[in-house]
Amino acid sequence: MRPFAAVLLVGATLTSMRMAAAADHCVLDVFNAMSNAQSDLGHAGVYDTFVEHFSASRSGTDTFLRARIASLYPNTSVVVTQDRTFDPLRYAAADSGVMIKELDDITPLKKVVFVPPLRRRDGDGSVAESTVLVAYTIATESHEFTAIVATWIDGYTFMTQWHLIGEDEHAATKFIHDCAAWCSKIRDAILVFDQSQWRPDHGLWESVQKASWDDVILDVKFKGKVQHDYRSFFKSEGVYKNLGVPWKRGLIFLGPPGNGKTVSVKAIMKDVKVPILYVKSFHTYGGDELGIRMIFSRARAEAPCVLILEDLDSLITDMNRSFFLNEVDGLEDNDGLLLIGTTNHFDKLDPALSNRPSRFDRKYEFPNPSHSERRQYAVYWQRKLSSNPDIQFPDSLLDEVADKTDKFSFAYLKEAFVSTLLTLAGREDHPDTLIPPAVAPLPFRTVLLEQIQQLRESLDKGGDTASMASSWGMGSPLAVHAGHSGGSQMRSGAGAGAVRMAQSIPMSPGGRGQQCFSIPVDRLTGKIDHNQPIRPVAQADLQAAQAQAQAQAQAQAGQTVFGG
After folding, report:
1. Is the model's pTM score more than 0.85?
2. Which of 91, 238, 452, 523 lies 20 to 30 Å (CA to CA) from residue 106?
3. How far is residue 293's CA from residue 297's CA, in Å, rounded to a whole number?
4. Model confidence pLDDT, tens digit, residues 523-555
5. Cα gap 482→506, rounded to integer Å
6. Domains of the chain by range and CATH?
7. If we measure between CA atoms, which residue out of 208, 333, 175, 362 comes closest to residue 277?
8. Separation of alpha carbons 262 and 341, rounded Å
9. For the purposes of burial, counting CB atoms within 10 Å of the CB of 253, is it exposed (0-12), middle (13-18) or buried (19 or more)?
């Protein structure tokens, strides 16, 4: 740039800066003039405006109700609680000596809501009353209260507020304590952690009540060790204290699926007399770390207790392992905690879990049953079916079953018996029978050995669970046999929940002549759909369905299928 041009540019810049500064002074003068003109308002005007804006009545339903109800009942005590465990209706229904009755002289606010059924087969649901405002009289052995309960929604929270009105404030407070203490105890339910919260599961509790060690077919010595381990733990607090070691224990049940791990866990849950905590997942809205923290905090609060973690290899990941180990190692007090974990893939567990003492002290392997255990399982079914006059289960069949089921898991053994019974159940003489009444029923032995052979073929193709032998994993057979013929699934367009199972049936006891039938089966239940007809089908269609089923089975087993 030339020197003369540079001088002009600098001069222009300085001139612009002087003009901008002059403009700023003008604006400042105007602002000062306005401020001086309004000085009589002063800062007090700003303060008054602010206070006026925040002086409107604020919505506080809980405070408003408490103050208004107290004014309606002068010279009495009004004790208020929003505790979620306080449920006088459930407390009174439990024969606690408390009487509760709805008051007629206070107009209630209620609305009718529809309650859908838990299961489709339970019916069409029902209607129930949802209370918004209602009043009760509550009578204990020594005191009587008027109780007003109100419910409303505050943000995303459903609020319930009880007002106990009476002469004795201490008596009302004691009643709240006694009622909440009783209601907070878990009865006829098992605590389950899932979806970021603990909840009592009555259905799981009912399932556990059906479990028994008598139904668990295991080696007698092995079963005795497991039973002694957990039973002695809860009796040995003093021994642990005298030895100066933490009173905690960890057990791992490992082995291939279907060999008694879960049923043994259920038997333990039924047997112990301490709280049971069952974990489905660590996942929470705040991550696995928060879930693990919530789980162990509740376990410590409930101790002595049993904490059950099924499928450890799925629950514990690289992301949450460190936090889990810190909780197990007991940075906080874990006294009275019996931790039971199960896994089908012990090799996938981190050595910090599988090999480190004081975390999981004992490992119990549940392998495939031995010959004697398979025979013992057959004896179990023989006794179970002994009251059925239509089933012939001779002792000679016991050894035959044990011989033919090598490498079977207990789940495969169970599937063999269940599939046999379902097959026989379809042969009863009624209009919806799978087989025409003229066909003679097959012996129990024949059907059982056919089911075992089918399961053997599935196992040889690489099947690892009994569900491969079930149509829908519901215990119904994939192929319902008649004679030496096989059955296959044939899908039809008869509704989203329907499939058809093709079955080839011998028309004579010798197996000469075959008739094929298309049998409607409900996809959800695995049972015969009696609303759909049983139709005859062509032999060629059956063969095509069998070929398709075989191709699918080979694909599942990892085989390549070539077809022309």
Report:
1. no
2. 91
3. 6
4. 444 444 445 544 555 555 555 555 555 555 444
5. 7
6. 61-185 (no CATH), 197-365 (3.40.50.300), 389-556 (no CATH)
7. 208
8. 10
9. buried
